[in-house]
Amino acid sequence: MVDQIHGDDRAMTRRRLMRGVAWAVPTLAVSVAAPAVAASQLGPEVGGSTQFQSSCSGTTQTLTINGTGSYPSQGTWISNVPSAPAPTSATLTAYYPTDLAPLTWTRLGTGSPAWTVPVVDTSVAQISGYTAYSSTYSGAWTYDTPNRRFYNAARPHFQAVRSGRTCVTPVTIYVQRQVTLSGQAYSVRRGPSTLS
């Protein structure tokens, strides 16, 4: 519902503004110039923390995706959402320079099977000079009430080893997280970031 403002009705009181907001569909952000209600009208936001590393020893280069810490220092989450329904899936996509390809990822012992082993993903938006590797999460979610946030309970932990080739340094990557909630995909991309 969109309110039309005519003539003397332009002087919108806070009470009238709140009444209009109460009828709004709670999807994304509501665009109003009202700081008092803006904070409560934020839409879903995807975030998270995972360590990405690269190390070289002679002609062997090891790349690691490590999300094995505890929430809130590690994990994938979606904030500014109600306690139901829970998300249905999440995807973690890491874009590595094509110079490193092909990369074959394996699960490390502390990695959860709720995250699939990363594979080349051509269905996501591509970045020139990079290859996208995606891992999908289909496990349980936990709700953090004070932060209005769902976070995943399992952690990704993967490794790719390149042997017999020159190490590529520095390694610059992009990372994209996507969470699906109520049939809608929300995502955020970060980068470029240089691995140490």
From TrEMBL:
InterPro entries for the chain: TAT_signal
Signal sequence region: 1-38
Top-level taxonomic group: Bacteria
Keyword Signal belongs to the record: yes
Keywords carried by this UniProt record: Signal
Designated name of the protein: Uncharacterized protein
Source species of the chain: Brachybacterium phenoliresistens
